[in-house]
Amino acid sequence: MQSPVRRKFMKFTKMQGIGNDYVYVNCFKETITDPAAVAVMVSDRHFGIGSDGLIMICSSEKADFRMRMFNADGSEGEMCGNGIRCVGKYVYDKGLTQKTTVSIETLAGIKILELYTMDGEVEKVKVDMGEPILKPSEIPVQLGRDTCISQSIDARDNSYSATCVSMGNPHMVVYVDSVGDIDIEKVGPPMENHEIFPNRVNTEFVELESDGTLRMRVWERGSGETLACGTGACAVLVASVLNAKSGRKNTVHLLGGDLEIEWSEKDNHVYMTGPAVTVFEGNIKI
Questions:
Q1: Rounded distance, CA 171 to CA 74, Å?
Q2: pTM
Q3: Is 118 a member of any domain?
């Protein structure tokens, strides 16, 4: 008779950045042999912890720390703007670093974080998200053109004027009259899996508010609609500048809260500033 497989307990921290929530694991102390499977398990909002995915905090030979992020379906993502802010809070609040300027290695490159503290804990984080990628082959999007600014893309018998941007992961930005009127569960999946996106795509639906600020909803590849997407908010600001709908610094309103985004003329980098919050901690069998 075969002995049953013994499962171990894993310590975790649930954190969120304006509603974009992940399960964080300190891989200096914990070992995850199958992160894709663990991501699926912990993300389940009925039988797991409940999250948009799993983020592992690891050692790095290139930066202070390394972040690996997995979506709710187990696929590994290059970068998460809200997630990386929470990584900054985690490593400072947990005493893994005393620095308030921290470098984080990701699949989208090394990102620099500025940590803003109050009473010994991080409340807000500014992230240098780097330069936006606009060349279609590098986003990637297969259009056979040199740019993807306000290009017509068909999905579900509808045609959308889309602008594509990569912030280390691919985004398609579409402007609508009202984000509240979008049936995102219907239009999100065919856009995510459109044949012109070899790595799938995150889709942002954007409404220009009367005060000039930007309101968005996002369909994230591998997770569906989420309350927020930091890289998506950055892509929205870049696309809005390219389409003459915004200045280079603006507030982006997401379902979970607001982010301040700036596309600097000085260095061509995009900067994102927003909160990071610890929700709860615990142990779970994996």
A1: 19
A2: 0.91
A3: yes
Place of tokens 């929205």: 236
Q: How many domains does the chain have?
A: 2
**Cβ–Cβ < 8 Å for 72, 52:** yes
Residue 172 falls inside a structural domain: yes
Catalytic status, residue 234: no
Place of tokens 């009925």: 46
Residue 37 sits in which domain range? 9-130+274-285
Tens-digit pLDDT profile for residues 141-151 = 998 888 899 99
86, 148, 164, 229: which is the annotated catalytic residue? 229
Kindly indicate the confidence band of residue 62, based on its pLDDT and cuts at 50, 70 and 90: very high
**Do you know the residue count of the chain?**
286
Catalytic, 229? Answer: yes
Inside any domain, residue 20: yes
CATH number where 278 lies: 3.10.310.10
Question: Is 218 inside any structural domain?
Answer: yes
Catalytic residue among 80, 86, 148, 164: 80
Predicted local distance difference test score (pLDDT) of residue 4: 60
